[in-house]
Amino acid sequence: MSVLEKGYHYVKNKYYKWKLSKLFKELDELTKDIPCWLFFGKRKARTEKIKAVAKELHKCCEAKTKECVWLLNYELKPLGEYRLEVLKHTVKDFFCVLKKMEQRYKEKFYKVETSAYISSDMRQQFRKIDVFIDNLQITGRMTGSEIAGSTIMVAASGVLTAIETPAAVMTVVGQFATASTGTAISGLSGAAATNATLAWLGGGSLATGGGGIAAGVETLATITNVAVGGVILVGIALTYICHVSSNLTKVIKEASALANSVRGIEQRLETFSGIKKRIDELKNITEKLESRAKKSFNRLKKIKNFECDNDRHVRIFQETAILMKALINLINTPILDKQGNVSQEGLNIIETTKKLIKNTELGK
Amino acid sequence: MKKDISKTLGFTGKSVINPVSVMNLISDVIGTIKFCAEQETERSRINAQRDVCIAQIKSKEEIILDYLEKTFDERKGLFEKFFNRADKAMESGNNEQLAVILSGVTKLAESSPFKDLVDLERTKNTLKNREEIDI
Predict the structure, then answer these.
(1) Residue B9 forms part of a structural domain
(2) Does the beta-carbon distance from B46 to A226 stay under 8 Å?
(3) Mean pLDDT, 10 residues at a time, chain A of 364 residues
(4) Are both A144 and A291 inside the same structural domain?
(5) What is the ipTM of this complex?
(6) Which of A228, A322, B9, B52 is the most exposed place for a label (fewest CB within 10 A)?
(7) Residues A106 and A29 in one domain
(8) B89 within a domain of the structure (yes/no)
(9) Number of domains in chain A
(10) How far apart are CA B1 and CA A190, in angstroms?
(11) What is the dihedral of CA B34, B40, B46, B52, to 10 degrees?
(12) Residues A121 and A36 reside in one and the same domain
């Protein structure tokens, strides 16, 4: 993750932002002001064009989400690495001293620890963290962004994959253009051709939201009632006109809903700047606390013969322990909530998108 | 295929135009025009709805960005105050006070700055009526 790489992803992110605004504009132009004189063949072409732009919009949104997640990981890494360093050195050194003192003064020292608000539960927790640091130094498994994103004791894998959810959900929309039935009729034969034709007359198959074969048969029956000579052709033409018109409306409706969802996701991505501020905030206060904890710890280390009855010694130990405890809690503080989301709002957008995809042609 | 459809439709090729059929046809033409007009109206409604949605999204974005800026500034100020008090407690050797102050620091750090974004309407009102919190 070099600066050059960051620059590359930053430019890509900006490019997708520009492309998205271009696609929104294009979609607006395509869906608005459809002249009433537009020939029906051209209306069908317009419908296909809207579908193509919507598909492109989805692709672009997915790519932009990926870029944003990459950039966020890039910002998270230094905080994660810094937290790791604090754990490996400052906290670990304190634990070593604590262990020695516990071994040396035993029961007497536990009273001192209790006076420094270190309960037996906390001692257990400290031990677990100590083991965790040892394992970390051996395996080095957790990455900087994992440490930064979550707690010390909980493996934080998936913190940023949760942010990627909109992209994962939107992938389903990738099948956008495969749902059409009418175009495939020419390639079919026999019963399949008849069924497809009937379904087409019914306004598309049931799967695409049309009336299906049953509606097609009904349409044919209606045509039959007026079918005398060339009049049948006019009947078919009227059905065709209605079909093209309603299909255009349906596609506009779905494309608009998709565009609105993409706008919502894009807005959420733009507010990722808040996470950067959160990262800076946590790094800043961790640094402040660490400097105070180190200062106090150095004073404790200078005491050559610690005496559990010496008020000054006990007070310095208390101070160090309180600061170290706060430092550990701070390192334990996740940047995002447990689901890896910035807020419930983010989840709502994802849910809405899911429903949208499930209920429309876009998801098939 | 052509033959089958002709049979299904009862088209023999010798038929004479029936006035009833013509009337039905005219009625169908009118129906089609009406249907197309309805579709036109529906499309206009969708476009209008989309414009409303865009306006809502833009307004939400403004609230979120405004909230984030203000909330981080406020938190920064609070942390500064906490650390000043912590330094004073350390200087005077008051560990009890130090423990309370540092517990405040960690609690503030733990509280998500994004939590108020769940309810944007409430956030909007909070931003309007915000008062400085004293420690």
Answers:
(1) no
(2) no
(3) 79 86 89 69 83 86 80 80 86 89 80 77 80 70 52 33 34 26 32 37 38 40 40 70 82 84 76 81 93 94 86 90 91 65 42 43 38
(4) yes
(5) 0.70
(6) B52
(7) yes
(8) yes
(9) 2
(10) 8
(11) -120
(12) yes
Other C-beta atoms closer than 10 Å to the C-beta of A245 total 23
Say yes or no: A65 and A153 in one domain: yes
Q: Is A323 on the interface with B (CB under 8 A)?
A: yes
Contact B9 A220 (CB under 8 A): yes
Token pair, residue B22, equals 């013509």
Domain total in chain B = 1
Joined together, the tokens standing for residue A157 give 């894998």
**B73 contact A CB<8A:** no
Domain end call among A196, A223, A256: A256
More reliable by pLDDT, B62 or A345: B62
The answer to whether A351 faces chain B, any CB pair under 8 Å, is: no
Domain span at B49: 17-128
Q: Is the pLDDT of residue B101 over 90?
A: yes
**Under an 8 A CB cutoff, do A235 and B64 touch?**
no
Q: Is A223 on the interface with B (CB under 8 A)?
A: yes
Question: In B, residues 33-52, which contact A (CB 8 Å cutoff)?
Answer: 35-36, 39-40, 42-43, 46-47, 49-50
Kindly determine whether residue A337 and residue B110, on different chains, have CB atoms separated by under 8 Å.
no
Query: Which chain B residues have a beta carbon less than 8 Å from that of A244?
Result: none
> A236 and A316: one domain?
no
For residue A179, is it within any domain? no
- More confident call, A322 vs B36: A322
Let me know whether A99 and A225 are in one domain: no
Residues A218 and A305 in one domain: no
CB of B130 within 8 Å of any CB in chain A?
A: no
Residues 262-321 of A with CB under 8 A from B: 263-264, 267, 270-271, 273-274, 277-278, 281-282, 284-285, 288-289, 292, 296, 315, 318-319
**Which range of residues forms the domain containing residue A189?**
184-256
If you count residue pairs, one on A and one on B, with CB atoms under 8 Å apart, how many are there?
173
> Among residues 111-170 of chain A, which lie with CB inside 8 Å of chain B?
116-117
